[in-house]
Amino acid sequence: MIKTVFAPVHQSVGARMVDFAGFYMPVEFSGVTDEHLCVREAVGVFDVSHMGEIWVKGPNALAFLQYVTSNDVSKLQPGKIQYSCFINHNGGIVDDLLVYCYQDQKYLLVVNASNIEKDWNWLNQNNLLGAELENSSDRISQLAVQGPRAIDTLQKITDINLSSIPYYTFVIGTIGGIDSVIISNTGYTGAGGFELYFYNEQAFSIWQKVFEAGLEFGIKPAGLAARDTLRLEMGYCLYGNDLNDTTTPLEAGLGWITKWVDGKNFIGREALEKQKQAGINRKLVGFVMQERAIPRQHYTIVDVDNNIIGEVTSGTMSPILKQGIGMGYVNAANSAEGSKIFVSIRDKKIPAQVVRLPFISK
Question: What number does CATH give the domain 2-51+139-233?
Fold first, then answer.
């Protein structure tokens, strides 16, 4: 397993460590619910150094990204971030990612840890325009400082006015005496906060400064389990669960990052245009259990007559709602908000209702 630079810190405080996508990562520290509520109510810190960072540079960088990503990269200006995905020739999702416009002719792609090698190979395979590619994943660490007190915590250790960084934008500046840190506002929890990108050799110093600054707000480290429950309450997709090479952005409700602008002939466009014209047969929906039960990935979803209509892709017991919540693909006929569906759990049909995402408001 690959260890992030923070692995010794996690072990020293008794984190439960697991193998996640080949990385040695903390799944929990003080407990999933405790960490979840800490992020929702105060401030928590996630080590997300396992994420991949790939630079795309040069005069053909923009044209290349227009070809390999679904969103319209031409709309980005320096300091702006865009959610997007790589699409294969059949319309399936190779990965979902963030595109950072660092400056003209220089972009940073932040990809999922499980797909770093896959994405790197995909980019090189399709680099017909000679863009300059650089995989810096093993040199860069990242912390996500999340929660309503995240801004109060980080403002103590930077002169940058953090409240002036809008959603899906970033700046480069000094945090805790460390220069050239990327400070971005994207979030994967719905609780507010910032992501900090820095070189590995600066990691321990930044960790220490962040935790010292957040002490008065009850700051805690948080693991992958709480990150999952937090993102699920917001209805955010997770690659490998809700997205994969066989799911299309149209089925996943990601049509808003699939741009059909003239001249943007991205990989997979033809397949998606055909699907759009024909209409989708299945759709990713959110649902709330109507009885006390927890839906789990791969559980079967059925209708009132016990016909199989879909499958759960993500599920948990929401610490905020105190109800089982989940996401899954169901056939189009059962995808409307308010539809009654059933999740098969140990040979029992447990009723659930399709709801509008997110499950909770920000």
Answer: 3.30.1360.120
What's the rounded Cα separation, in Å, for the pair 36 and 227? 8
Neighbour tally for 218: CB within 10 Å: 13
CA distances from 252 to 192, 255, 265, 300 (A): 24, 8, 21, 18
Would you list the domain boundaries of the chain? 2-51+139-233, 52-135, 281-355
How far apart (Å, rounded) are the C-alpha atoms in residues 153 and 145?
A: 9
Please state whether the predicted TM-score (pTM) of the whole model is above 0.85: yes
pLDDT in tens, 179-204: 999 999 999 999 999 999 999 999 99
- Fold (CATH) for 52-135: Alpha-Beta Plaits (3.30.70)
Residue type, 250: L
Q: Are 300 and 344 in contact (CB under 8 A)?
A: yes
Structure tokens at 190: 């719905």
Q: Which residues, 6 or more positions from 319, have their beta carbon under 8 angstroms from its beta carbon? A: 32, 33, 36, 37, 40, 229, 233
